[in-house]
Amino acid sequence: MPGITIYKHNLPFCLCGAVRSTLNQVKKRGALVYKDATELAQIIDQTLAKPDATLNDLSAACELAKKYGFACVVVNSSYVAQARNLLSNTLIKVCATVGFPHGSSTTTVKIFEAMESIKNGASEVDIVANIGMVKSGRFDFVEVDIKNVIALTPQKVHTVVIETGSLAIDEITRICQIAMRTGAHFIKTSTGYGSRGTTMDDVRLIRRVVDTSCRIKACGGIMDLTTVMNMIAVGADRIDTSAGSAIMEEYLKKSA
To answer: Block means of pLDDT (10 residues each) for the chain, length 256 residues?
Structure first.
């Protein structure tokens, strides 16, 4: 492929920056308490990745992001340009899904999807790991696949998306180790379209493996404030959800 180098061998082990959430959080009776709604909103990514999402849905999602001050809006790559336009003159980031939802695109296709998304305004990239190859034990393939997307889209925030509901403990462990070696900033627990939602045990396991080497995005079935707080309490740094508005309204009602 002209102009693009495809890596076929492992790069030296490299940890991403050990950056943890800077939210002003305190422990109180086992739950996390936020100083104000702004801090809570800044750990939420408003997600719109359903296959039948319309442009009107996208506009509504971006308006909600602006209303509450969410960190990011996550969209399929075809909607990146529109999302960036809708969020112009704000600090809200656009995150593009790559290889969504099964990670089964070829590496070359993933690279071009990521590069095109960045050209269209994405500052974060969610790279879906090839779940079939993980289940086949082809971790070498999975690592090269992810590594190439990250290497060809430097200076952006990269997330490796796994599907915890479809993976065994050893498979989750291996893919987390790959994410660390490839320099990913985040590991996301699910696409939201897996066999089940994310559990606290999923987040605990990932946190034990990565320690402070990667941050964690919890995604899948997170629809209320209690679940958000539980996920953060066991190690999640960001929350991907389509229910950001409901979560914020619940928080505001309880804080009133």
So the answer is: 47 31 36 73 96 97 98 98 98 98 97 98 98 97 98 97 97 98 98 93 98 96 96 97 97 90
Rounded CA separation 190/245 (Å): 20
Q: Between the CA atoms of 168, 173, 174 and 177, what dihedral angle is there, to the nearest 10 degrees?
A: 160
- ∠ Cα 232 156 108 (to 5°): 110
- Domains annotated on the chain, with CATH: 25-255 (3.20.20.70)
Q: How many CA atoms lie within 13 A of 20 on its CB side?
A: 10
Cis before residue 154, ω within 30 degrees of 0?
A: no
Q: Which of 45, 217, 237, 240 is catalytic?
A: 217
The pLDDT value recorded for residue 208 is 97
Q: Which amino acid is at 20?
A: R
Catalytic residue of the set 45, 93, 126, 147: 126
> Is 188 part of the annotated catalytic residue set?
yes
Choice among 93, 147, 188, 237 that is catalytic: 188
Please give the span between the terminal C-alpha atoms of the chain, in angstroms, as a whole number.
58
In the annotation, is 35 catalytic? no
The predicted model scores a pTM of 0.87
Burial per residue of 174-195, b for 16 or more beta-carbon CB atoms within 10 angstroms, e otherwise: bbbbbbbbbbbbbbbbbbbebe
Check if 202 is active-site: no
Give burial (CB, 10 Å; 0-12/13-18/19+) of 91. exposed
CA 30 to chain centroid:
26
